[in-house]
């Protein structure tokens, strides 16, 4: 009987944790080298903030506990690269700034908080971050510029060819006219009568 209650209780707890009111689940794309803000808006009076990435296991991206951030169990790749956007966490803003992102920062970030006077973490937001490799934006811009330049050259050549052909055609049309207008070509019968 106790076992059954335990199972029911566990099921309820699991259900409760998955019944989160997400303020946002979103996709963020960033270029390598940028500083990215991972937004998370909770309520006021925050006691604990936990930022995790699902694939990093027990190590945190960022942890704020007992009134300060703590570096215990922080994943080494985030050392000196993360901080709260607003250190005062005004109005429950616990958004995180991740500096100088690399392709290795691609992943799913989860923000959880514990409100003062409550127990249990509450999942607030999930962010799918995708970081483009360095130079990929530059590459796209380069390709576009090259394509535009090529189009311009083609247009210029085409324009020149058309212009030349028209000029030639005009010359061809003009030549007989010139011949007709020469005094020798005017019949004497139409003159001086
Ligand atoms: C995020 O991207 C995935 C695919 O990468 C897509 O299925 C999903 O709809 C996107 N979500 C939002 C909120 O844009
Ligand atoms: C990222 O943030 C750091 C520290 O705040 C700053 O020095 C740097 O200029 C920022 N880089 C970009 C690309 O905004
Ligand atoms: C950003 O990260 C790259 C690669 O990890 C590094 O080479 C570069 O020095 C870093 N830039 C800053 C401003 O920290
Ligand atoms: C990404 O991680 C791999 C494996 O840990 C590492 O070899 C590589 O240098 C990292 N790349 C960047 C841009 O930090």
Automatic annotation (TrEMBL):
Lineage top rank: taxon: Eukaryota
Glycoprotein found in the keyword field: yes
Lineage per the UniProt record: Eukaryota, Metazoa, Chordata, Craniata, Vertebrata
Name of the coding gene: LOC102195591
Pfam families in UniProt: V-set
Cellular localization per UniProt: Cell membrane
Sequence ranges assigned to domain Ig-like in this UniProt record: 18-113
Transmembrane segments: 137-163
Gene3D superfamilies: Immunoglobulins
GO biological process: cell surface receptor signaling pathway; cellular response to lipopolysaccharide; immune response; negative regulation of T cell proliferation; positive regulation of T cell proliferation; T cell costimulation
Predominant location category: membrane
Membrane topology label: Single-pass type I membrane protein
GO CC, one annotated term: external side of plasma membrane
Residues in the signal sequence: 1-18
Keywords in alphabetical order: Cell membrane, Disulfide bond, Glycoprotein, Immunoglobulin domain, Membrane, Receptor, Signal, Transmembrane, Transmembrane helix
Protein name per the record: Selection and upkeep of intraepithelial T-cells protein 1-like
